[in-house]
Amino acid sequence: MAREIEAEMGAAPSGELTYAGYLQLDRLLSCQQTLSPGPHHDELLFVIIHQTTELWFKLALHELRAALAAVEADDLATAFKILARVKHIQRCLFDQWGVLETLTPSEYVQFRGVLGRSSGFQSVQYRTLEFLLGHKDPAMLRYFASDDEASATLQAALDRPSIYQAFLAWLARHRHPVPADVLARDPAVPWVKHDGVVEVFRRIYADPQAHWEAYNMCEKLVDLEENVSLWRYRHVMVVQRVIGFKRGTGGSSGVSFLKKMIDVQLYPELWAVRTEL
Fold first, then answer.
1. Using alpha carbons only, what angle is made at residue 275 by residues 219 and 215, rounded to the nearest 5 degrees?
2. Best exposed site among 54, 104, 166, 192 by fewest CB in 10 Å?
3. Torsion from C-alpha of 227, 53, 240, 232, nearest 10 degrees
4. What is the per-residue pLDDT across 77-90, written as a single tens digit (0 to 9) for each?
5. Handedness of CA 176, 71, 266, 138 (dihedral sign)
């Protein structure tokens, strides 16, 4: 049975904005350039997965910056809404690994050589996302030294308080006894667990109703970190499934290098408090 077309439906009049025009599909769909001879059938999968990953990173950064600004403005209600969206974006990023792992070792080896030394490690957006989430590492900047724009973007994210640091400042403004030396920390340096912060969280978790906004934000941050850890773990498993223990294209040790990141904690005090309750 043919689909019935409603009378009001039809092609856009000449000169009016169309679906393809609004989304700039001519530009978007011309970006999938493969380099392997043929090209090899499976290279398009590899390109699209990584391009869409970067699009999700772009949206995650857009949302995370807005959430950070909301926390700094004492508007946790808005931050909660935004972070709920970020959680779903993270789920999309996680699920994409399932598509990529359909790439077998025999298929990947057919075009891996065209990648040269390019690697996901070189993703400016991913590194920016890590910085805003709280995994600060000034040493990362040297890998982008030849790119002035990337260096400026990363330096700005490094120097800005992370979402975690902004929340600790919010707690201090709302009369929670966050230690002064924690609040005075340089936002660009790697985070170090502080027992005084664990105690602040212990008081919040011991009486959620009395500290509902703070308690809710704590759980939102735990959600974010859990999703980061799951994404990292899935990354390791997909890489091991596709290339085994070969070295990464960017020069890393591959799986061994990626495994080191699985247990890195962004918000150690939020995990430590669970033992204290």
1. 25
2. 192
3. -20
4. 999 999 999 999 99
5. negative
